[in-house]
Amino acid sequence: MRNLAHFVVGLVALAGLLPSSARAGGMFLPARGARPLGRAGSFVAGADDLEALYYNPAGIAGSAYDPTGEKIGNGSFLLDAGLVFQSVDYARVDSGGNPQPDVQSTNHLLPIPFLAASWRPESLGRRVTFAVGAFAPYTGVPSYPADGAQRYSLVSLEGTAAAVVELAVAVRVTPELYLGGGLQNMFLSLNNTITLSGCTQLNCMPENPEFDAPTQTKVTSAFTPSANFGALYVLPYVRFGLSIQLPYFAHATGTVATRLPRDPQFDGAVVVGNAIAVDIDFPAVFRAGVELRPRRDFRLEVGVDYETWQIQDKIRFIPDGVYIDHVVGVGRYDLRPMELDRSMNGVFAAHLGGELDVLPHRLTLRAGYLFESAAMPSQTLSVLTPDGDKHLLSLGVALRLGRFRIDAAYGHFFQGDRSVSDSRSYQLNPIQPSILVPVGNGTYQVATDVLSIGFEARY
User: What is the pLDDT of residues 235-256, one digit of tens each?
Assistant: First the structure.
């Protein structure tokens, strides 16, 4: 138990290093992990290693068996890491209808790891498998010019991190039926830099740079619980899989720091207080898949997913006792709660992927295709989440050396350009929140590639 405790502590420490930010699939790319990425996320019915913690926890029981179906050892270990190469080109049209210079994102490349281990006690007849893991969704970590036309939507998410630690159990109820579930906790650290406006609309235009207030919010949530559950029904030539990921409701607290506008009205003004809270919700995910195994050397899975991103209707920023004092002609301005309108849609995905052993028990090739609908409607689209309908094509390869396996996968997301002319993504103004200045109009171009490498050992 001491070794297990040390391992869990290590996973928690790793979790704090995993990057995350607002991106596709609502806010995340729809496939993660070296082996599942090679199958374009088609890994619900076919889940039979520790990546099942993310896709279908019933599948962790499958890590007791090698690819031929023979029982092996008492557990497994898996480590993988992914790199997201993403670029966003945004040509904004300002609130006056004037085209602005294009801006391009700078993507900070950090490996996004997955680390997990499982074990099955002999005392329970090796029918029960326990697992612990830490993982994060695949995302990009973008930054933009501090004075760019996009500054009212986002300047930087560098330093943002989110990760999930999960404790799971799966039971082989019968030779055909596997059931599993996991208790999860999300560690969220949001580091968001954006430009607010201090314009009162009495003596200024809303996009006047003299009233810009660059602002950095740093908040954390150490306890955001959730859970997932799954089932597998395994027959000689076909497998059926179902899983559900419950939602996360994050309430993060921390500090806000701002530079006051340069306009003379703010000469001598000071900001008092720095406490703020952010409320943000993440969706439930329903997954289903059918995997055909007509031969031992070939697998083909078709699946569908549904993500309830509509629960993220707003992101709420709630200052606590923060105000600006000594404003010329006014005196004191209290910073009021702000809401970022999201009005997201539910996301539907369909995918097809498979594996072929070209050298039995030694070399495996993988390929897959996925379509995913957009979560962001045009009216609330912004560089914070430049989402759209997307198609994923992926390839993967695995090399087995006895009880060890090395995986590699590459995927490219094809996402069409989007043009917005009716934006309801509004400039955030803590002094006059009722001023509605659209900041999301323009054209968005997004390109995304993902590379992932993994290592598994069964013992």
Answer: 999 999 999 999 999 999 999 9
Q: Residue 93's domain spans which residues?
A: 9-458
Task: Show the 3-state SS of the chain.
Answer: CHHHHHHHHHHHHHHCCCECCCCCCCCCCCCCCHHHHHCCCCCCCCCCCCCHHHHCHHHHHHHHECCCCCECCCEEEEEEEEEEEEEEEEEEECCCCCECCCEECEECCCCEEEEEEEECCHHHCCCEEEEEEEECCCCCCEECCCCCCCCCCCCECCCCEEEEEEEEEEEECCCCEEEEEEEEEEEEEEEEEEEEECCCCCCCCCCCHHHEEEEEEEEEECCCEEEEEEEEEECCCEEEEEEEECCEEEEEEEEEEECCCCCHHHCCCEEECCEEEEEEEECCEEEEEEEEEEECCEEEEEEEEEECHHHCCEEEEEEECCEEEEECCCEEEECCCEEEECCCCCEEEEEEEEEEEEECCCEEEEEEEEEECCCCCHHHCECCECCCCEEEEEEEEEEEECCEEEEEEEEEEEECCEEECCCCCECCCCCCCCCCCECCCEEEEEEEEEEEEEEEEEC
Report yes or no on 1 lying in a domain: no
CATH number for 63: 2.40.160.60
Q: Report the domain count for the chain.
A: 1
Kindly state whether residue 204 falls inside one of the protein's structural domains: yes
- The per-residue pLDDT for range 157-214, each reduced to its tens digit, is 888 888 999 999 999 999 899 999 999 999 999 999 999 988 876 678 878 999 999 9
The verdict on residue 4 lying in a domain is no
User: Is there a domain that residue 2 lies in?
Assistant: no
